[in-house]
Structures are given as structure tokens and as C-alpha cells.
Amino acid sequence: MQTVPAYQALITTETFLCGAGRFIPSVVGRLNGNPDDPQLVWLVSPSGRRIDVLWPPGFAVTFDPTLLLYDSHGAVVARAGDAIDINTDPARHAGTSTDPYKANDFNGGCYAPMASP
Predict the structure, then answer these.
(1) CA 77 – CA 94 distance, rounded (Å)
(2) Long-range contacts of the stretch 16-25 (C-beta < 8 A, 24+)
(3) Which strands sit side by side in the sheet containing 50-54, from one edge to the other?
(4) CA 33/CA 40 separation, integer angstroms
(5) Distance in angstroms (rounded) separating the CA atoms of residues 29 and 86
(6) Tens digits of per-residue pLDDT, 70-92?
(7) What is the maximum span of the chain, computed from C-alpha positions, in angstroms?
(8) What is the C-alpha to C-alpha distance for residues 51 and 28, in angstroms, rounded to an integer?
(9) What is the distance between the alpha carbons of residues 53 and 86, in angstroms, rounded to a whole number?
(10) How far apart are CA 106 and CA 87, in angstroms?
(11) Can you tell me whether residue 91 is helix, strand or coil?
(12) Radius of gyration of the chain from Cα atoms?
């Protein structure tokens, strides 16, 4: 199991809101990945564009025999080709390796880190 690129566990300059408000449009794509790619796991938009994503702390992936994405508790949250709907404002990031989306709220699951006191 390989750990995927994740956002920082401590909230510094951004606030994570899960379920508090739905962004329409959100960021939507199908889960894809490659064990030889430094990002390991990303989304592919309906138009075919790659969308880079930072996953919550502790998320991991395996590629045996197909891609499985696990949460920090080891539960499978998505498989290769699954639709992922990230509740985030698409205008806040570019979805590139240098400006990825943060997948703290997707497909109805909330994975926001706790803020430090």
C-alpha cells in the first residue's frame, strides 16, 4: 500500500467545510492512477482532462490487481473508474500538480482534519 499525496493535517490558512454548503458546480471526474506516476492517483474529467488532487491525510492506494483508494482507517472509498464528486469551488484551484484540488469532502464523505487549538 502506498500513501498518496495529501494535504497538510493542520489547518493554517484555509477552513474546511464539509456538508455546510454545496458548491455547484463541484469538481467531478473518474478515479484513475498509475503506480509509476509521482501523484499515484488523480481524476479524469468528463472532457478527458487530468485533474490532480490532494487526498486527506492517511489515504493510501494499491494497484493489485486494480486501483483501490483507502481512507485513513483502511476502508476502500473508491476504485479505478469510480465517479468522484469533490465538494469544492472549482475556481479556487487549477487541478494541476502545482495547484491541486483538496478532496476533503467527496462523494458524501467528510475527511477534514481537526484544527489545532
Answers:
(1) 24
(2) 16/102, 16/104, 16/105, 16/112, 16/113, 17/105, 17/112, 18/87, 18/104, 18/105, 18/110, 18/111, 18/112, 19/105, 19/110, 22/87, 23/87, 23/88, 23/89, 23/90, 25/90
(3) 101-102, 50-54, 41-44, 27-33, 83-86, 105-106, 109-110
(4) 5
(5) 9
(6) 998 899 999 999 999 998 889 98
(7) 42
(8) 9
(9) 10
(10) 6
(11) helix
(12) 13
**Contact between 56 and 75 (Cβ < 8 Å):** no
Counts for the chain of helices (H) and strands (E), in that order = 0, 11
d(CA 52, CA 5): 10
CB 3 within 8 A of CB 71: no
pLDDT digits 0-9 by tens, 7-66: 765 544 455 556 666 777 889 999 999 999 999 999 999 999 999 999 988 899 999 899
Q: How far apart are CA 65 and CA 23, in angstroms?
A: 34
Q: How long a stretch of residues is the chain?
A: 117
